[in-house]
């Protein structure tokens, strides 16, 4: 079942198609609804969902048949529900990402300095959030750790999320210096690498310069016919979720290049075990 985020995006995309098919501008729809053009854009981009009255007015304006109306009304109902993540008080820039992660069928991630969130132990996740006090207030740390552990359930769900990760050796090296965390965290990486839906490859120091030295990213793919691929990039004080085809295509090429230069899965596990012994 799709999350509210996916329902909003699918409904918004459908409303945009209907408007374009009629050759109507967003400004004209704003005039019809008595709202701002920005609100119309937000509805069509899936950031917000129309009210019941707004949707009915739009369906009347587009002259939709009853069967199509029922479909859009069901989508609106799904879009207006609260996602399971709403109780975690997420910052706005992260809410849509978690919603889409919930619906994704495959994630491809590249990390440079920290280990991927879906592969972190509870202790490691807590340490990361405590360090990021400029993003997570101290009183919110435990809530955010719980959220991270909840997100990890996708890896063991039925069906499980396909997860392909390339990790810079730098993330392993930094973890190794946190002696209170390292043993458990490295053991967890090895255990997760044994799952058929999880692939972990390490990009070693000896590859030298590479084509994503400016930052980490996540590529999200969704079940056929639901939503186009997306990319998420996080920085020190926020994050950005994008759907631009050129951006997604470009970063997909970057990811495949990183993956081709990284150690094999078995060699990566061997390297992780070596760090665990230090």
Report, as a whole number of angstroms, the end-to-end distance. 45 Å
Anisotropy-based shape: elongated
CATH architecture of the largest domain: 2-Layer Sandwich
SSE string, helices as H and strands as E: HHHHHHEHHEHHEEEEHH
Walk across the major sheet and give the strand order.
3-2-1-4-5-6
Organism: Saccharopolyspora thermophila
InterPro entries: Cro/C1-type_HTH (IPR001387), DUF5753 (IPR043917), Lambda_DNA-bd_dom_sf (IPR010982)
Protein name: Transcriptional regulator
GO molecular function, one term: DNA binding
Outline:
By secondary structure, this protein is α/β, with parallel strands linked by helices.
What this model shows, in words?
It comes from Saccharopolyspora thermophila. GO terms for molecular function: DNA binding. Residues 15-68 form the HTH cro/C1-type domain. InterPro entries: Cro/C1-type_HTH (IPR001387), DUF5753 (IPR043917), Lambda_DNA-bd_dom_sf (IPR010982). This is Transcriptional regulator. A hairpin with a 2-residue loop joins β5 (230-235) and β6. The chain has two domains: 4-81, lambda repressor-like DNA-binding domains (434 Repressor (Amino-terminal Domain)), CATH 1.10.260; 92-277, Endonuclease, Chain A. The N and C termini lie far apart (45 Å). The model has no long low-confidence stretch (mean pLDDT 92). With 278 residues, the chain is α/β, with parallel strands linked by helices. The protein has a six-stranded mixed β-sheet with strand order 3-2-1-4-5-6, sandwiched between helices. It has helices spanning 4-22, 26-33, 37-44, 52-62, 66-80, 92-103, 122-131, 141-151, 169-176, 179-193, 245-261, 265-277; strands spanning 106-111, 162-168, 198-203, 217-221, 230-235, 238-242.
């Amino acid at each position: 079942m799709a999350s509210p985020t996916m329902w909003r995006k699918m409904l918004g995309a459908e409303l945009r198609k209907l408007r374009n098919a009629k050759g109507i501008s967003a400004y004209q729809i704003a005039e019809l609804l008595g709202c701002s053009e920005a609100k119309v854009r937000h509805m069509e981009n899936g950031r917000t969902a129309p009210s019941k009255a707004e949707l009915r007015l739009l369906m009347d304006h587009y002259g939709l048949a009853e069967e199509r109306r029922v479909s859009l009304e069901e989508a609106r109902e799904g879009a207006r529900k609260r996602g399971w993540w709403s109780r975690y008080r997420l910052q706005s820039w992260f809410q849509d990402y978690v919603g889409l992660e919930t619906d994704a069928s495959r994630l491809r991630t590249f990390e440079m300095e920290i280990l991927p969130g879906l592969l972190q132990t509870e202790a490691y996740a807590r340490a990361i959030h405590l360090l990021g006090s400029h993003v997570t207030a101290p009183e919110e740390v435990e809530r955010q750790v719980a959220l991270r552990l909840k997100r990890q359930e996708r890896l063991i769900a039925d069906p499980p999320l396909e997860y392909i990760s390339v990790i810079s050796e730098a993330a392993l090296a930094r973890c190794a210096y946190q002696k209170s965390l390292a043993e458990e965290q490295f053991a967890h990486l090895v255990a997760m690498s044994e799952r058929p839906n999880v692939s972990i490859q390490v990009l070693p120091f000896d590859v030298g310069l590479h084509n994503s030295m400016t930052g980490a990213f996540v590529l999200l793919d969704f079940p056929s016919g639901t939503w186009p691929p997306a990319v998420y990039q996080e920085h020190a004080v926020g994050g950005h979720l994008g759907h631009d085809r050129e951006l997604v295509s470009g970063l997909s090429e970057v990811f495949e290049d990183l993956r081709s230069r990284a150690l094999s899965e078995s060699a990566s596990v061997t390297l992780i075990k070596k760090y665990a012994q230090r």
